[in-house]
């Protein structure tokens, strides 16, 4: 990897296998980015435990599932550095240093934190680790010297928090840290859930997983939310808010045909089954090769783990270099 | 060191050289404890930076000064493990795990934290690292498997917080962590300042340092607060609140003579200069050998640093053993 390539930091909390929402929102993009950037893909196991400590029984399997998903969709461990957060102590060390540069009040005002506190229903019982999450993430980003952080619009405040921390550090100690930039997708790449809810999500139970079998995929497509008033094939139907059309817009390359189908659906005479079958074919076309690669890779979990440990070793090397600069700046060199 | 010895965790934030208050309150005790316990003495450089990040320019020298003080008063690096906090990444890692087991509200209610927030005048701008301090300290204590933590009464809530975290961890994951106990000195061993204030402290400028020269010591004793109404030698004087007598009570082994002096002072006819000269002699007797050892050791700072690095190496070994148990319990073994 050339030194001239810009560095990207991305990743996921391993709370279970990844779904089509991840694929559209970030995974596909990573396959492109790894060709032109030095891409670090973080499997954030420490952060996965932060929101639900009881999850630890499944954590190792979840890490493996996520790594399988990565490799299956085409993130290439020879082009991207895929690694496990809890094996990089430098992230924890840097987080501890950064905690001195942020006030509790500032963290409590962070819009992403506020939203997530509401979502999780913590009330006033916010775990300290949860409130500290933006600081932990600032360490994730900066310890790998990232230039770019691909995030959804809702995560932009986390990158802004990182920039604030970097500026404080550079001012108080020495200018050794890089300011990262958020990289927000041009189009709103958030995928709706099967049920029509705004977001596909494991916890909402409305997701198509990258590892779903052909049958499961078919069943899920057939269960999709369309237009509740479209009772008979002959009735006119509504395209807006119809999940099948939303997916066809995203996944079906034959845009003209999709537009014709929409017109037909609107004036009546086009049944849900027809459009669902079409969507099923389109999605099977995308997911079958992914599923097959996934099944192939899943036969040798030891090889996947070895790949992760190799990526982690490279990541630690980079983290150690940054930490040497940080310690020098903080005069913590003994 | 025998495996049967109980483990003690103690230490200081290196914010400057240590003073007679530290000597009375904890250092002397450590010289005793190291004979009967496996004693870990933490130089908490990360925590020293937490309250005042601008201090980093002096941090390395402060660490060295504290280590000189330790060795000068008789903490023996062959009996105690003296080490530097920032060189133990396991402490940061464990802190990150513990942060998930404590709520922000609980930390805000911690009496020690509340007192210190008031003392430092943070107002609503409490650095996150400061609020997290009890969690960081819980990691300090438990990563070395400490049985006992010598603390002043005001620090007891910090040990209680540690016990809470240990219980949560052991319940959620597996019972691999030891519950520590606070070890509070029987007598109130807090030393007044030269000016009569309740506490000898660097920031109050009312301290006698272990490295003070004989002249400085004499000057400081002569400046001590006595009884402002004792204008003439012949006047009756007050013993209560009189710093010279408070010190004589603590440091002068000839208790009968001190009682006679008190009686004489009360009825009048005993000048401040006489009791101050006596106290000076007593303190010179204690501090001269300490100062001489300190000067001798200070000639070879490289040897002191080598001692610290050796202690740190042993401490890291113990920390790594604990972390292996912690990771096993959390299923973070890859």
Provide structural commentary.
The structure is a homodimer of 334-residue chains. Chain A is mainly alpha-helical. Chain A folds into 2 domains: 7-191 and 301-330, HUPs (Rossmann fold, 3-Layer(aba) Sandwich); 214-295, Tyrosyl-Transfer RNA Synthetase (Orthogonal Bundle), CATH 1.10.240. Chain A is built from 14 helices and 5 strands. Chain A has helices at residues 20-36, 45-51, 56-73, 89-99, 104-109, 111-120, 128-131, 133-143, 156-172, 214-222, 243-251, 255-267, 272-298, 301-330, and strands spanning 7-12, 38-43, 80-84, 148-150, 181-183. A 3-stranded parallel sheet of chain A has the order 1-2-3. In chain A, strands 4-5 form a two-stranded parallel sheet. The mean pLDDT of chain A is 93.
Shape of chain A: elongated
Q: Distance between termini of chain A?
A: 33 Å
Assign the structural class of chain A, choosing from mainly alpha, mainly beta, alpha/beta, alpha+beta, or little secondary structure: mainly alpha
CATH class of the largest domain in chain A: Alpha Beta
**What's the architecture of the largest domain in chain A, going by CATH?**
3-Layer(aba) Sandwich
Instruction: Give me the oligomer status.
Output: homodimer
The CATH superfamily of the largest domain in chain A is HUPs
Tally of individual helices of chain A: 14
Name the largest protein-protein interface in this structure. Answer: A-B, 51 and 51 residues
**Mean of residue pLDDT of chain A?**
93
Q: Beta-sheet strand percentage of chain A?
A: 5-15%
CATH topology of the largest domain in chain A: Rossmann fold
Helix content of chain A: 55-70%
Largest sheet of chain A: 3 strands, parallel
Number of strands of chain A: 5
H/E order of the elements of chain A? EHEHHEHHHHHEHEHHHHH
Strand ordering within the main sheet of chain A: 1-2-3
- Please indicate the count of domains of chain A: 2
Q: Give start-end ranges of low-pLDDT stretches of chain A.
A: none
Rg estimate of chain A, integer Å = 22 Å
């Amino acid at each position: 990897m050339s030194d001239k390539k810009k560095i990207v930091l991305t990743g996921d909390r391993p709370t279970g296998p990844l779904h089509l929402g991840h694929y559209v929102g970030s995974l596909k993009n990573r396959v492109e980015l790894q060709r032109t950037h030095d891409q670090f893909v973080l499997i954030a196991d420490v952060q996965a435990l932060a929101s639900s400590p009881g999850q630890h029984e499944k954590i190792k399997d979840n890490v493996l599932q996520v790594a399988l998903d990565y490799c299956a969709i085409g993130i290439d461990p020879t082009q991207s550095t895929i690694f496990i957060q809890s094996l990089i102590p430098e992230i924890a060390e840097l987080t501890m240093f950064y905690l001195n540069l942020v006030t509790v009040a500032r963290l409590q005002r962070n819009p992403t934190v506020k939203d997530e506190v509401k979502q999780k229903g913590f009330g006033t019982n916010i775990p300290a680790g949860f409130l500290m999450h933006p600081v932990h993430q600032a360490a994730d980003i900066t310890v790998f010297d990232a230039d770019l952080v691909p995030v959804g619009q809702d995560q932009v405040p986390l990158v802004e928090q990182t920039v604030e921390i970097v500026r404080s550090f550079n001012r108080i100690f020495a200018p050794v840290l890089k300011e990262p930039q958020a990289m927000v997708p041009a189009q709103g790449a958030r995928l709706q859930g099967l049920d029509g809810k705004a977001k596909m999500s494991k916890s909402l139970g409305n997701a198509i997983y990258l590892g779903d079998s052909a049958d499961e995929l078919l069943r899920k497509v057939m269960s999709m939310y369309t237009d509740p008033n479209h009772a008979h094939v002959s009735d006119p139907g509504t395209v807006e808010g119809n999940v099948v059309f939303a997916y066809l817009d995203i996944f079906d390359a034959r845009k003209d045909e999709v537009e014709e189908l929409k017109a037909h659906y609107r004036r009546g005479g086009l049944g849900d089954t027809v459009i669902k079958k079409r969507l099923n074919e389109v999605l099977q076309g995308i997911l079958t090769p992914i599923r097959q690669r996934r099944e192939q890779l899943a036969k040798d979990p030891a090889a996947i783990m070895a790949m992760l440990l190799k990526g982690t070793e490279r990541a630690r090397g980079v983290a150690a270099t940054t930490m040497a600069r940080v310690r020098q700046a903080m005069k913590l060199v003994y």
